[in-house]
Amino acid sequence: NHCHQFSAKGGWDLLQNEIRSQIANLERRLNLKQDYLLSALAAITLSGSDQLVLDMGDKAFSEDLPKWVQEATRAAGELPEEMKFDLRKLFHVQIQPQTEIWTAGEEASIVITFRSRIQVEMSFTSVLVEMRGTAEEERISSAVLRFTNDGPIHLKPGTTSVLASTQQVAFAGWFKLYTVSMSLEKLRLWGNFESEGHGRTPSNVLFKSVGSTPLEVSLEDTEDMPLINGSENSARVRLVTGNAGYDGTVEMQVELKTPESLRRDVQAGIHLVDKDGNDCDSVLESFDLRLEPSAAHSVQMPFRVDQVVPRYMLESSLERKVFQAELEVTARLSFSHGGMPRVISRQKSKVLEFVRPLKLIARLESVSADASLLSIAILNEMKEMELAILGTELNITGKKWFIDRAKPPPHGDLLQQTIQPASTFHTVFPVKRSSDISSPDEESLVCLSVEVQAAEAARASQFLEGVCNLEALIKEEKSFVVRRSVEGNAVVGSRVKFEFTVEPILESSKNSLAQELLMYEIKYDPKEWVVAGKQRGKVVAEKKSIVRHIVPLRSGLLSPPKIMMVEAPVAEDPYVFSVDHADQILQVHVLPAQHSRITCEKGVQGQLSTSAGSWRPEADSFRLSNNDFMVEKL
Length: 634
Hints:
This protein is mainly β. Helices cover about 10% and strands about 50% of the residues. A hairpin with a 3-residue loop joins strand 43 (about 610) and strand 44.
């Protein structure tokens, strides 16, 4: 009776909305789930009718709209099977690429803009955009490109933008919009856009992709970068072209970020070096580059170490890495593809790892009640760099022990020494125990300072300091020598005999062994070995050797299990004795589970007769009859 207030279209929309509401209530009571969901969606659609908005303004939006949105969400979860609904009845959709041109083989993104007339928020679990593509060398569509988003979508009244991406663009060519769909439980809002934008010419196609990246950027650095004041090194930036080559401009920015110490006792500064030799944290270079297909261009990026303040322990751990810094390269490529100018960016990063140049080791030898020998070894851990020792200073704090300066070191002084790569300098200092026992609790610390210089850093040097407790070295001399042996042919998956003996070095060690106060424990890499039988047991003085069986898990040259000695009975925090494996370089040759063997014997005229063929001395090689492999003369 009040439809006369509206235009014909607006009146019918209002009347349909009222009737739809009554029908929906009846469908809900009759448990007609699909029909009820359609009625709820129709009510949502009619609430935003353009004509109603023109006729009634803000009054056009039903007060029941939030209820219908909730009812539609609930009904979508109760559907027995998936149901489609026209997306464009609720939302207007527009698609734009995030970048003007895509690159084949790489990730691509689009921005989906939804315009909603519904005056409440609607949420969906996901969105899917499908595009049909036509390759440059083909005339018909050959692939479908799918874009998806991360996480739920909340479409608010007005305009909402959603980012969707695909992991890889299939090929170089043209793509046009095919379908857009959104999911809400088992409800799928779906729109087919294939009829829009027909045509195969580039002017009528929405999106364009070109061939793969013309330049790949990689970062390489040298091994064994020493952490020494003044030492210089460099990372190499490689630009490698694809099949099409490269002709354009490269603008490259290199940054050194987040220098980080891997040890509390080491501080340092790492800086890039510009063309003028000045320290900086960022370098910008721009140059024209023309490369043939599959060619490469390298750019050296030097950097310098300074402000190093390390204080290494004399008894250093096995970990050599002490400092790191992240090098980041951003390359902006400007070139032309098929007459079309293009600008793309490539970014690569690499963590530079710096190592300590020296390892300082201290030992006590010939320990007695009032005198001993302090053994100092300095190992050059650089594989290719010669290190020069410019000076040293050795002291023992406290009054318990002192260095006997009256006697010269038996193996030479530490001053003015040059240590070759991967070599060790060793010397021994006589030390005596003082008769002054006025401070029995005072620590005796061995302090060694070494001034070292790298070969290429002729004007700079670095002081490395080491500190250790002399009393701890005395306790550590309570050690043992372990000798290991592996008998038989080792084959992956087969048992092999593993035998080891434990021999005490000092009298105190012999007493611990005689009193059966020692436990052995077999330590091994579970990726390489399995130990059959007990892996821990008591060391019996009368028993000269201990036998176990081990099973290799992979082929190659493997280091056998090691032996650890602890006090017995084992406490919560047992004392671990120093163990010297006399056969440190021992390796076991493990054969694969399936292998072939060729037997051969020397003939009368120098000919080798084998089970698979013959070989004369003048021949360099012979091939087996089944061509599986060839034996060469060494």
